[in-house]
Amino acid sequence: MAGDAPTRVGGGAAELVLMWGGFPPLGAGAGWLLASAAGWLADLPWVPLRGLFEALSRLPQPQVSIGAAVLGALAGLLLAGAGTAERLTVTVDRERVALSRDGKQRETPRHQVRIVLVDGGDLVLLDGDGGELLRERSELDRDRLRAAFRTHGWPWAEEDPHRAAYRLWVPELPGLPAGADALLRARERAIERERRDDARELRRELGRLGVVVRDEERRQYWRLTGRAVLPTAGQPTEPQPDRR
User: Fold this and answer.
1) Mean pLDDT by 10 residues, the chain (244 residues)
2) DSSP string, 78-127
């Protein structure tokens, strides 16, 4: 029956050809040029690492340029390998969606998902309470993702139906569940220090409290899901310091 075979959405062969066929030669060329021009670069007062270029200029040619080209090619291979591992692959069928990246795979069953959408550069799966089952950075083509999910009967949305509910996070802003403000503070520090894994884990912790977070220009916006538990009247949202 049509639509039963899984649909796979990935970066495609052209992307692999670009990385593996382009990065190593570019690295080799850059290494050769830098080594060949080492003497000239060492005479420029504004060039960083002038001592390194001075040392290279004293080494015999063309051996040093060949060595630099080989190192540049190896760097290009490493970059291509890292880029290949970072590629996201989405596989969809009627029962589940599987996301693979960097050798790791996560699956989400269809019955848990109410809405699928692309929010900015993220693939997002929402549950029936409005919570995020998954938010994954994606460079995949939106049209291909839309076609893949719709082919298998998944509910696709062109935009976030909860977009108007988001509020800019400000420290000690009321209306958050207990503990959420502290998590948002910690996540702000993780974002500032570019600790992506920490920010991702803190997003999951906020999700357990019923708080969904989205980032715009390093600022955090939040909204509540249907399972959020707010403090009762007169109860502080965060523990207050002992003032004795």
Assistant:
1) 77 65 83 83 80 81 85 81 73 95 89 94 93 90 94 95 94 91 96 92 94 92 91 54 40
2) HHHHHHHHH--EEEE-SSEEEEEETTEEEEEEGGG-SEEEEETTEEEEE-
DSSP 118-170: EETTEEEEE-TTS-EEEEEE--S-HHHHHHHHHHTT--B-SS-TTGGG-EE--
Tokens for 169, please give them.
Answer: 């996070």
The amino acid at residue 33 is: L
Strand partners, 124: 117, 135
Full-model pTM: 0.70
Q: What's the distance, CA 55 to chain centroid?
A: 40
Structure tokens given for 31: 């290494």
Q: Are 227 and 209 in contact (CB under 8 A)?
A: no
